[in-house]
Write the structure tokens for this entry.
Amino acid sequence: DWTAEHIIDELISDVQKQVGEGRVLLAISGGVDSSTLGLLLARAVGDRLTAVFIDHGLLRLGEREQVEAALIPLGVHLVTVDARAEFMGALEGVSDPEQKRKIIGREFIRAFEREAALQAQEHGGFDFLAQGTLYPDVIESAGGLQSDKSGAANIKSHHNVGGLPEDLNFKLVEPFRTLFKDEVREIAKLLGLPEHIRMRHPFPGPGLAIRCLGAISEEKLDILRRVDDIFISGLREFGLYDGCSQALAILTPIQSVGVMGDERTYSYTAALRAVTTDDYMTAEWARLPWDFLATMSNRIVNQVHEINRVVYDITGKPPATIEWE
Ligand code: XMP
């Protein structure tokens, strides 16, 4: 019989048996799976866990601080790596979506390996690499279907923090291999992971880079970050967040004419997208209330001066994907 308390004890003792006195390395993405795993491993092996969180500069507003505030007080030895400059440099002038994903994947591994080496020098080498692999991931990879954490098939070359260095000769620790997402969320609750991370929509590994269409820049990411924050905070405020499977803002490269006071503007168009889905392979656009959308549109154009037009994406998947790149 499945109770989360019981499962936690069992997972902890399994990890302790497997790891012994070894040292464990974990990549934290800020999502529910890796965050929960961080908490579980901290309980199991204490500071023989090092959790590495790469800030690639493609995170949402306040995300880094939220992850740090959630994990560090609960005893996770968390190291945040500021790799923003490297990612920006590597992505400069790159507009092709697949190219962007590849570069981000490559830079991620580089930054992670470099930090792992530094940590190993300081505290001693690592024996194990922990991953938040879930049961559906196991099934799908056994079936030969490449998938990401949200179960989406590999139509886009998905990169997430699961795709880590294979040449490092780590043994894998994957305590969640038999679990479903809902079970991980229950475990997360008992381990004290704050609700905003526990119940979070999936967020892609390449982050805001694939929501900032075309070549990215600091300026564009900053605009997108503010739009996204207004939309996501608004969904929470109006009690609509949990009813959507995923919600996102997109910064398009379209500039159009508008009017603000007595002045003509020529500014960017932001798109909002929200979907409902069970498996992320197909999705419906969420029928958000018009009044809510009106409020979001007003807030965005009032608070983000670089935006003078807001549109809502009313396309299902297929034919559209959830992300715009
Ligand atoms: P699409 O856009 O293919 O997305 O309908 C389906 C789900 O997958 C997520 N997604 C990604 N996740 N790396 C990830 O970790 C990626 O490159 C990536 N691309 C899409 C997307 O957010 C949605 O949940």
